[in-house]
Amino acid sequence: xxxxxxxxxxxxxxxxxxxxxxxxxxxxxxxxxxxxxxxxxxxxxxxxxxxxxxxxxxxxxxxxxxxxxxxxxxxxxxxxxxxxxxxxxxxxxxxxxxxxxxxxxxxxxxxxxxxxxxxxxxxxxxxxxxxxxxxxxxxxxxxxxxxxxxxxxxxxxxxxxxxxxxxxxxxxxxxxxxxxxxxxxxxxxxxxxxxxxxxxxxxxxxxxxxx
Length: 211
Fold this sequence. Notes:
This protein is of the alpha+beta class. It contains seven helices and six strands. Helix 4 crosses helix 6. It has a four-stranded antiparallel sheet, covered by helices on one side. The protein has a two-stranded antiparallel sheet with strand order 1-2.
């Protein structure tokens, strides 16, 4: 069994950027995390360190989040950014501050894609997105201007599914549903439109594209 990180290493992991996983710490701390497979040193200057998927799992174990199918608030009490998945109890905030947060989170995610690919491509989801499917899809939708559902029920809702690497996107307005599909396709997701047998309502099934 892998030995858990030390208290000092946990503090470095906890302080990582919530979207990109960029780390700050002493050279000794960062080297120790790399040795344990919890971080990697990017080969290109400025040679920053980032959490690996294993490091992200450690971070989430330290700061447990709600299950993906449940709706989350736009930001946790500690100020960590969270994309709106739709269906939150409070009305969606579309003010300038929220728009800046979403734009910054999306740019950070694109940077994470670039930094974790040999070719520096940003057209396909990265490992972090594959382990945070609901949040990743919701961020792509919100960043493109699609409106998450509020208490009144209008807008998109992103939910986990039993299928591996797939989320469902619900939107009562057909035109808005097609706009969500186009957004996710541009963000590097494979999207198919389906019909719910019991309700006859349309929804999207989206998965991160690999090639």
